Amino acid sequence: MGLELYLDLLSQPCRSIYIFARSNNIPFEFKQVELFKDSVLGKKPAAGSGAEQPHAGEGTDILLTSDFVLVGPSNSEGAGKVSLLKKVPALKDGDFTLAECTAILLYLSRKYNTPDHWYPSDIQKRAQVDEYLSWHHANIRANAPKTMWIKVLIPLFTGQPLPSEKLQEVMEGLSTSLKQFEERFLQDKAFIIGSEISLADLVAVVELMQPVGVGCDIFEDRPRLREWRRRVEDAVGKELFFQAHEMIFNIKELSNIEIHPQLKEHLAPVLMKILK
Amino acid sequence: MGLELYLDLLSQPCRALYIFARSNNIPFEFKQVELMKGEHKTEEFQKVNLLMKVPAMRDGSFTLAESIAILLYMVRKFKTPDHWYPSDLQKRARVDEYLSWQHVNIRGKGSKVFIMKMLLPLFTGQTLPPEKLEGATEELNAVLKQFEEKFLQDKPFIAGSDISLADLVALVELMQPVCSGYDLFEERPKLAAWRSRVEEAVGKQLFQEAHEGISNIKNLTADKIAPELMESLKHQLLKQVA
């Protein structure tokens, strides 16, 4: 039993791990975890649904730093029962389990000795990657995911669209973060740490694809960011990048899915809290 | 010109840096940046950190923000004892895991309680509706539960038998709500025991010294805050707890 990565590609941190592992030819078993009772976009529900939980502890609070995943009756004790799974992404390597995207990426880069530029041995360049990965949490990641919640997921669960001021608020917050990203982190360099791609760029770009997927194209009026995105895509492989983002590009399909009423009931109040 | 650390010990991440550097006898120049006086907004400081936040570091011509990045930089540059950021792949991953998770959880929720209990009343001149504070406290309690059950469990420290960056970062954050009057250690003996161990490991005296300012935060009155700051900070704080 080798490395297992529990991922749902709807989730940004999952995508960065997926792209990183595939791009570096790291052998792993993709443990697909899917949202909702019925399959998303026609894909089959997770096989091997008897997979053990990667780690202990409740993942019941829905925070925007770690995406939660729901698995319906096919994975739980009884028909009609819904269980709130622990968070994704998660890694299982033998007996060792690990959560948190940054931790997983760093673990993979060390264990599989990936090329230096991903997490440079140069102490200052490495610090710049750390700096971005830290800042990311409370800034880009604080707002980018909310666009999907507001435009697609919450209306899906609550049956009601959200007032446009909510989206505007989020976009303003995101704009501020993007400005800081350009001025402080990217500046006039090709990538965050200079001439080569690192974990920082990968973590940033997948997050920014979330609003793109729901129709808030933040790259539209930002040529410098657009160019940077193109470079990142080229560096990891355009085909891989596209494949990882297939679900996001087809996110509108999500709106047509039937959500189990019990799930709706259970989650609606919790979801509303996210946006408070 | 050696290492410069730009700090205000009222800030949790600043305390982590201060304690870490002092505890490891890392030579540095303490550059005070008084938040309440708005010193983080000066042009001078912006040269060190464009994002206008503390902590920040300058090492020659190299500047760096974000406490986690600075801590790791110091670990590497000054080759501190292994337990701070273990070379063992799995132990190191545990530290990374905590340092990542904590941003929005312990740090996020702890700060919120502190802002609501201590800062907002000061800046707005009004007491907050009790439900708001209750809500924030509940959220903090929930992450404390996760901290105990997932990260600490029955180990002496997060990564195992020795203190690491994770414990230090965790404890300084928890001191914030504590100093605003929410004694979260009171009914959590496991956490209280862990706290003792962390204080011992870094040095009780150093720990206390680092927390002197924040321990007296209740003495902060509106007149001690730069007037230009009052308005802008008020808005910022309100947004943070919205």
Overview of the structural elements:
The complex is a heterodimer of chains A (276) and B (242). Helices cover 49% and strands 10% of the residues of chain A. Chain A is an alpha+beta fold. Chain B is α+β, with helices and mostly antiparallel strands and 242 residues long. Chain B has eleven helices and four strands. In chain B, α1 links the parallel β1 and β2 (29-32). The N and C termini of chain B lie far apart (43 Å). Chain A binds chain B through residues 55-58, 61, 63-66, 96, 98-104, 106-107, 110-111, 123-124, 126-128, 130-131, 133-135, 137-138, 142, 180, 183-184, 276, and chain B through 50-51, 62, 64-70, 72-73, 76-77, 89-90, 92-94, 96-97, 99-101, 103-105, 108, 139, 142-143, 145-146, 149-150, 242.
Give a brief description.
The complex is a heterodimer of chains A (276) and B (242). By secondary structure, chain A is of the alpha+beta class. Helices cover 49% and strands 10% of the residues of chain A.
Layout of SSEs?
The complex is a heterodimer of chains A (276) and B (242).
Chain A: E1 3-7, H1 12-23, E2 29-32, E3 67-71, E4 83-88, E5 90-93, E6 96-99, H2 101-111, H3 123-138, H4 140-158, H5 164-186, H6 199-213, H7 223-236, H8 238-244, H9 246-249, H10 261-274
Parallel strand pairs in A: 1-2
Antiparallel strand pairs in A: 1-5, 3-4, 5-6
Chain B: E1 3-7, H1 12-23, E2 29-32, H2 43-46, E3 56-59, E4 62-65, H3 67-77, H4 89-101, H5 106-124, H6 130-152, H7 165-179, H8 189-202, H9 204-210, H10 212-215, H11 227-241
Parallel strand pairs in B: 1-2
Antiparallel strand pairs in B: 1-3, 3-4
Helix pairs in contact in B: 1-3, 1-7, 4-7, 5-6, 5-7, 5-11, 8-9
User: What is the subunit arrangement here?
Assistant: heterodimer
Record field, number of beta strands of chain B: 4
Number of helices of chain B: 11
Mind summarizing the main beta sheet of chain A? 4 strands, mixed
| Secondary-structure element series of chain B | EHEHEEHHHHHHHHH
Largest β-sheet summary of chain B: 4 strands, mixed
Would you tell me the structural class of the helices and strands of chain A? alpha+beta
Q: What is the residue-averaged pLDDT of chain A?
A: 80
Which value, in Å, is the CA radius of gyration of chain B?
18 Å
Number of helices of chain A: 10
Gross morphology of chain A = globular
The percent range for strand residues of chain A is 5-15%
Give me the strand/helix succession of chain A.
EHEEEEEHHHHHHHHH
Please list the strands of the largest sheet of chain A in the order they lie side by side. Answer: 2-1-5-6
How large, in whole angstroms, is the Cα Rg of chain A? 18 Å
Major sheet of chain B: order of its strands?
2-1-3-4
Structural class of chain B: alpha+beta
| Cα distance spanning the termini of chain A | 43 Å
Q: Largest interface, per-chain counts?
A: A-B, 38 and 36 residues
Overall geometry of chain B comes to globular
Overall pLDDT metric of chain B: 95
